[in-house]
Amino acid sequence: MAANVRRELVEGTLGNSVSIIDPLRNHRWDRFVLQHPYGWITHLSGWKRVLDANFPHMTGYYLVLKDALGGIRAALPVYAVESWLIGRRLVSIPFATLCDPLATEAADAELLSEAVLRLAERLGISRVEIRTAAAAHLLNRDRFHADCLHKHHFLPLCPDPELVRQRFHRSCVRQRIARAEKCNLSLIRGKRESDLREFYLLHRLTRKRKGLPPHPYQLVKALWQTFGPQGVVELLLCRRGNETIGGLILFKYKERVSIEYSAMNVLHNDSSPVHFLFWHAIREACLDGYRVLDFGQTSQHNKSLMEFKSHWGAQVTDLPHFLYPNIPPRSRAEGEESIAKKLLQFVCNKAPDTALSYLGNFCYRHLG
Q1: From the CB of residue 8, how many other CB atoms can be counted at a distance below 10 Å?
Q2: Per-residue pLDDT for 258 more than 80?
């Protein structure tokens, strides 16, 4: 029964002028995302294509309000995530740091929020999570509980990269960049899958050191193959001699560049490959006319990472997650989550390298 309901709702209506469209079949969708001030790569139809192909436990529903001419006026994409481990829920675009509701008016956001709750009821789902950044002021805080545990760091850019460089911390960043520039490091733009595999092996070990499961290789590969030819996703590698010692995957869309995935060989920390790569990404973004560089999402409890990003002169804002039902988390639930997180960190740290990919695939089968 639930499967039939899901199929029927992939395209349909939820009442109050809210429709569900399939962005893979609606030619207006990507143009709407491009024109909307909050539109980002994660909203594009290509992102849904990647999720559909690699995560069968997710079903995307793209809720839209249309204008009198049939054009899209506002939208809110959400995904039903099925997991026997952590439960069923309806969430904003999975694996996306920025995935704002594409609305600029509170009245439109209210209509879309009501429709999401109707969708959840029809699907038999009791938990809803809408993730925001710029659109946070549009959500009804009486209906949803606002969780502000995640922060977003971003660096305003200008055409002169040296002016941006002056805002970096002198010893923690500028001196590390100067050291890297004396180490004969080279910047390589990844074009082949062998380049991506080199990056991923480092990325997997980087996540292990942090006690985090690695992103599935198929996810990283699919994003690179889907958006790379358009110049929206770019792979940068840092090499010392013939050895790859660091890497970044960048998202580049409209006026933003975002550092989404990073990797470093700690045995070469003395040459500061991360600072070398970050500086090249920032410098090129300035020269190419981008206005903002994102450092991604950070838990407010991760003090060291918060400090690292602030040393680059980054500004910080909340990334509120609006949760339904509007019940603040209980201390017991927070304690259980902390225990689960510590257990996951322990497993990731102790798992043999060959098992890390299986661990990542298992974890991301339940995340969203």
Answers
A1: 11
A2: yes
Mean pLDDT confidence for 294-306: 92
Q: Per-residue pLDDT for 364 more than 90?
A: no
Tell the burial category of 333 from Cβ atoms under 10 Å away from its Cβ (0-12, 13-18, 19+): exposed
Can you tell me the distance from the alpha carbon of 77 to that of 48, in angstroms, rounded to the nearest whole number?
10
How far apart CA 137 and CA 102 sit, in angstroms, is: 13
**Bigger pLDDT: 340 vs 308:** 308
Which runs of consecutive H residues, i.e. helices, occur in 57-152? 106-123
With DSSP H G I counted as helix, E B as strand and the rest as coil, what are the percentages for the chain, rounded to 5? 45, 25, 30
Cβ atoms 64, 75 nearer than 8 A: yes
Ranges assigned E (strand) in the chain:
12-15, 18-21, 58-66, 72-81, 89-91, 128-131, 145-147, 150-156, 185-189, 233-240, 243-253, 256-264, 292-299, 315-318, 321-324
* Domains of the chain from N-terminus onward: 2-148+320-347 (3.40.630.30), 152-317 (3.40.630.30)
Residue 263 to residue 281: CA distance in whole angstroms = 14
Contact 155, 291 (CB under 8 A): no
Looking at residues 314-319, what average pLDDT do you find?
A: 95
Dmax (CA) of the chain: 64
Is the confidence at residue 7, as pLDDT, over 80?
A: no
- Written as six digits, the tokens of 150 are 């995640």
Q: At what angle do helices 193-209 and 217-227 cross, to 10 degrees?
A: 140
Q: How confident is the model at residue 20 (pLDDT cuts 50, 70, 90)?
A: very high
Do residues 319 and 282 touch, judged by C-beta distance below 8 A? no
For 225-252, letters b (16+ CB in 10 Å) and e give: ebbbeeebbbbbbbbbeeebbbbbbbbb
pLDDT digits (tens, 9 = 90+) for 209-243: 888 889 999 999 999 999 999 999 999 999 999 99
Average confidence score pLDDT of the chain: 91
